[in-house]
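**Sequence, structure tokens**
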Amino acid sequence: MTSGFLYKKLWRHRSFRIGLIVIFFLLLAACLGPVFWTIEPTSMQMRFRFKPPSLDFPLGTDGFGRDVLSRLLHGARLSLGIGLSVAVLSGAMGTLVGVISGHFKQFDSLLMRCMDALMAFPAIMLAIGITAVLGPQTASVIIALSVAYVPRTARIVRAAVLVIRETEYIQAANVAGASHARIVFRHLLPNSIGPLVVQMSFVFSYAILAEAALSFLGIGAPPPTPSWGNIISEGRDRSIEAWWIMLFPGIAISLAALGMNLLGDGLRDVLDPRQKTEG
């Protein structure tokens, strides 16, 4: 499948197209929003506390008089950045574990039992434990969530490698005396990219939701750094009279999760037609 044909097929897929558009506008808002909306997200103006949405404050203000729109735009950078970082790190670590486990039989049992031990804990609970040990900071959240989602990626890559290693061209490469490095980098990894990319798109979505949960609990990015999760947390005590503080970051989180899941569905359907759910 040529790259041009692949791009056209992806764009014709409705779920992928909608997801891509949603994520594009979220990224555009995160990158360019603070450039045009220049109010500082940490600037406190107590005389404007709990102002509802208006022309001066399109998304209202919070309990410290801070502009919710500004905090939402700056928080998008952090939340989406954490999602991307977790997807890349967990993808890299999971691929390493999955390839070693699938290709080298002597390591398979040990590595998979380690992954089973990690999967015995719900991902969010494992992330909470790691973050509590490392301390509430952005780097801790990225490390914790990456570790929590490694087992899922490792199992998917391992499954792909187990199928690929039994194919005739891999057996021919072994008979021809090809090195392990050549087999891994020339055959196993390129043919495992499809399932890996799909999984990373879902991990991106999971990480955004998990980061919001950690920030809501107070163990994510420390205040006053804005993230979607801690903005919601700050507005929970005034959820009735100041509903806008929780509503808009909640919508942003929902859109990000929806967009990445639609992207993942489209990638899965195109890269693995056997699991096709929609045309």
Notes: The chain is about 75% helix and 0% strand.
